[in-house]
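Quick start: read one record
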Amino acid sequence: MFSRLLAAILLIVVAAALLVAAWPQLFGLQRTFVVAQLVSFRGSAVAIAVIGMIVLVLLAMLSRAFRRLGSSLALLLLVFAMVSTAVLATRGFGDTAFSTKGKSDITVLSWNTLGDAPGAEVIAKLALDSSADIVTMPETTKETALAVAAIMKASGRPMWEHTVAFDQISKARSTSVLTSVDLGTYHPLETAGSTTTLPTVVLAPDDGNGPLIVAAHPVAPIPSEMRNWNADLKWLSKVCESKNVIVAGDFNSTLDHLAGFGADATHTLGNCADAALSSGNAAVGTWPTTIPALFGAPIDHVMVTDNWRVTGMRVVQDLDTAGSDHRPIVVQLEPKG
């Protein structure tokens, strides 16, 4: 009797833990320590659950005493894997189709370069090959951003450069953004503020026409930065309350973490919607590059307001050995109306 009671308690605890891991938003736990880290890797969690299920089934087959408990645990893991896979499927396992780019369309490239690691030539080549109009580069210094801009200008695609650095000690505390001269001139909107630990660049058009451009870099949800991470995401949601905004960068957050920050069910962050979710790419991991994309964390995003339509996106997976631990993302946007 006592062993059955312990088994029942174990099953209840495991079921509760798996429910939280599958959908922490149900309990408002998506931005709490430990849960936030676990939910980042849904694809990996599915793979681990399937392996665990197979092991439990084999053990249950070998041991009659363990058969009932092992089978029950395996069933819980199966349900968890199915629910998590369904969530990933609704977000999209990757659709790299792009519509033909129109004259008014804007292409956004975002790449956390891990402190200039890929080098200016590699970054510039990707930007040129992508016909990027906006290039956001968290963890990228002014020196590298200027070098990228120079290469692009020499190739017939001149760009304006803006960098915000919190200090010159760590390259991670610099964020750079390039904007095509075809978009007009922009200036830093210093009154908008910034994220706390790592800088975010907010640019406004000089003539008042054109989108607010935000190169975002909230801090990662490590134990010492949980409060700042939450504050950063809340601040970004406020930035997205404007009517014409393009936000791109390393959010250090998946769609699960961002739950509750949208103005309504159709928006992800303030009045902004996630380009990856709109294009069927939101299950494709952008970090780290050392594991397959579908097992990684989709933490790099482009977010846009309703006046933009996403007409293409891809997570770049052929530069995993370029030096950065993040994969670049390329998004094509078409103005509505």
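The two ends are 69 Å apart (CA to CA).
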